[in-house]
Amino acid sequence: MRNAFFKSSAVALAGAVLLAGGPALATPPPRGEARRLACEGPVVGCVRQARHALTEVRDALGCDHRAPFPVIYVQLERALEAAAAKPGSFDEPEWLAGDLNTGFVNLYLDAYRADQGSRAVPQAWKTAFDAARTGDVNAGQDVLLGANAHIQRDMPYVLASLGLARPGGASRKADYDRFQKVLDRAYASAVEEIARHYDPVVALADARWNPLAGYTASRLFRMWREQAWTHARQLAEADGPSARKEIVRRIENNAARWASLLNTVHVPGYRQVRDAYCQAHHRSGVNRKPTSRRETRPAHRTTGVTTVPHRNGDAVR
Fold it and tell me: Is this prediction's pTM over 0.85?
């Protein structure tokens, strides 16, 4: 039943946005590409499935500058898995840790796979991927750029598609806010992993690497999640295609503007510093040189908006 609900919700999401004249959130998969994640069975198993898929992405990237974002994401899924296994953590675990988490992870995997295949991605994701591919930014900025695109751009669509209220009418906001506590628990260990394997500057105080002085990463995540809920409510309450189109435009532009702001600070030559550090400290890079230029600096570029299915599979740390 949960799988059927998730599939119907995904269809409703795509339909709502297409009716709004906004970006297509699903396109026919390329020939031979497997299906996206679907939540089937126990909720904990759904989270574990998502974690395995994200771990696969993280490990495949190696020292690629896109890797720090899935590092954060894997740790988040670990924390969510532990919370979902504990009775009483959420009022509606099937929604929060099941359908919402699965749908949310799918949109990141869609964007990542599209970028891998040189297909178009939403502007906020394009800025994040381009900065990771060519920019002299630090790993903390890569995390923020990915988090901005995923939270401010992707989250409103998933929330609106699944509904902001339970069948009886009670708001799901309490569970949504509880998820923030899961994120808070995962953040410290994720930062330690990034500093240990990818970029030591991330271990410094937020103000030393964050291009937005006065805002810690944790504070930004909280702000963005509140904005995502507001945009989801506006999208769900929009009266007709014209109103929905305006909300979609607002969501896309807001995420794109934040991405541009986060991408303003570059330190010439820092890319080489990060690459050298990662090759010396990464779990797959110790005593090993890159086998190809693409391993640390892929050459393809993308524009526009689309998504693609993700190949499911387990991965081992």
Answer: no
- The Cα 54–Cα 105 span in angstroms is 8
> In the prediction, which pLDDT does 283 show?
77
For 206-239, what is each residue's pLDDT tens digit? Answer: 555 666 666 788 889 999 999 999 999 999 999 9
pLDDT of residue 87: 94
Geometric angle at alpha carbon 113, from 244 and 263, rounded to 5°: 70
> Which pLDDT band holds residue 316 (cuts at 50, 70, 90)?
very low
Closest CA to 224 of 212, 237, 238: 212
> Of residues 117 and 303, which shows the higher confidence score?
117
For residue 142, CA distances in Å to 103, 177, 217 come to: 22, 25, 12
Burial class (CB in 10 A: 0-12, 13-18, 19+), 27: middle
Q: Phi and psi (nearest 5°) for 292?
A: -160, 160
CA distances to 67, 109, 166, 204, 311 from 30, in Å: 24, 15, 36, 42, 11
Largest CA distance in the chain: 59
Quickly count: other Cβ atoms within 10 Å of residue 313's Cβ. Answer: 11
Q: Which residues touch 244 (CB under 8 Å, ≥6 apart)?
A: 16, 17, 19, 20, 21, 22, 235, 238
| Phi and psi torsions of 165, nearest 5° | -130, 150
Least confident of 12-26, 110-124, 165-179: 12-26
Upper half-sphere CA count for residue 313 (Cβ side, 13 Å): 12
Q: Compute the average pLDDT of residues 279-292.
A: 59
First to last CA, the chain: 32
